[in-house]
Amino acid sequence: MYNRLLLFYFTGTGNALAAANWIAQVAKGQNIPVEIKKITPSLSVNSSEIQENTLIGFCYPTHGFNAPPVVIDFMLRFPHTNNKVFLLNTRAGMKLYKWFTPGMSGLAQLLPAAILKIKGCKIIGWQPMDLPSNWISIHPGLRQKVVDSIFQRCEIITKQFAVKILSGRKVYKGLISLPIDLIISPISVGYYFFGRFALAKTFVAGSNCNGCRRCEKECPVQAIQMKNGRPFWTRRCESCMHCMNRCPEKAIQTPHLFVVLIWWLIFSILPVSLVPLLVSPGSFLATHFTLFVWIFVFVTGLPVIFFSYRILHFLMRFRFFNWLITFTSLTKFKFWRRYFAPVKYL
């Protein structure tokens, strides 16, 4: 069916790369040449690189019920083509006893599909893949036994999907969850315009950071800078969890107490104390009070988060404050496992 398979992937902890490798294995087994390219902020593709009868695939994680911004930006720069394209997004898969539980996509497939459709592409595949959840800021990494069982299941599903796609069939399994995806789409939009910038400020390096700079060097979107000898997460951070899960010293933490206090300030204290002062009874703002509150939170929230994070980064150089923030971070406990895709799949 195809003369070539061109696969683009973005990954933080290896899930999307594993899926891309599984698809590539199937293609190679059918003697179809495969080229795999990692999506980075600087990656660009010319139309001359895309040959006729080339199948194009995108494998990427789901961030905030959306495709990672670096993936969206790449697709917006993608050349116009009439080639056939498929999308595979990895989601936060879990397991309860013997039952595998699915994650949710939101706009993770709908938005990229719309962008590529405008580019002239023919979408022939929407496939979500429920690989292990890696959001270590919220929960400990899954046990290795559970990770292995999820990977074994997803390898079979992914390769079955690849066989169908490479034979010319269309697969739209992503449409099964369309009603739920549309319901949670406002969260996807909120993540893209607000949440990702806030989450970028939920990482710090504890006292056991030895300044090896591995996090800075390996960041997939070059979002980490060293300031005064300590990692500093900029607004470009996509919360892909690569740094936290790959730090050899497990020094990168989520400062849960700090996050709770700042977000409580943004979503509760400031709106409750300041919004009533800005709204006159019977005015236009009073009749649209809820909308005004959310606009107020959006306008004031990010500046507060960015300013407070700079203060936090400065205070982390002092031993007592570093100890306090680290002690109130759940991620520093030994039972809070890290996660990265098994090496044999990468």
Structural class: alpha/beta
Alpha-carbon Rg, integer: 22 Å
The CATH homology group name of the largest domain? Flavodoxin domain
Helix coverage percent: 40-55%
CATH class of the largest domain: Alpha Beta
Spans with pLDDT under 50 lasting ≥5 residues?
A: none
Strand tally: 12
Count of discrete alpha- or pi-helical segments spanning 4 or more residues: 12
**Beta-strand content:** 15-25%
First-to-last CA distance? 27 Å
Determine the CATH topology of the largest domain. Answer: Rossmann fold
Q: Tell me which oligomeric state these chains represent.
A: single chain
Describe the sheet with the most strands: 6 strands, parallel
Walk me through the structure.
The protein is α/β, with parallel strands linked by helices and 346 residues long. It folds into 2 domains: 4-187, Rossmann fold, CATH 3.40.50.360; 199-332, Alpha-Beta Plaits. It is built from 12 helices and 12 strands. The strands form 4 sheets. A 6-stranded parallel sheet has the order 2-1-3-4-7-8, sandwiched between helices. A two-stranded antiparallel ribbon has the order 5-6. Strand 3 (54-61), helix 2 (69-76) and strand 4 (84-90) form a beta-alpha-beta unit. The longest helix has 27 residues, at 289-315. The model has no long low-confidence stretch (mean pLDDT 93).
Keywords:
Alpha-Beta Plaits, two-stranded antiparallel ribbon, six-stranded parallel sheet, 12 strands, 346 residues, Rossmann fold
Secondary-structure blueprint of this entry?
Blueprint: E1 4-9, H1 15-29, E2 34-38, E3 54-61, H2 69-76, E4 84-90, E5 94-96, E6 99-101, H3 110-118, E7 122-129, H4 144-166, E8 171-172, H5 178-183, H6 185-199, E9 204-205, H7 214-218, E10 224-227, E11 230-233, H8 242-246, E12 252-253, H9 256-278, H10 284-287, H11 289-315, H12 319-327
Parallel strand pairs: 1-2, 1-3, 3-4, 4-7, 7-8
Antiparallel strand pairs: 5-6, 9-12, 10-11
Helix pairs in contact: 1-4, 2-3, 9-11
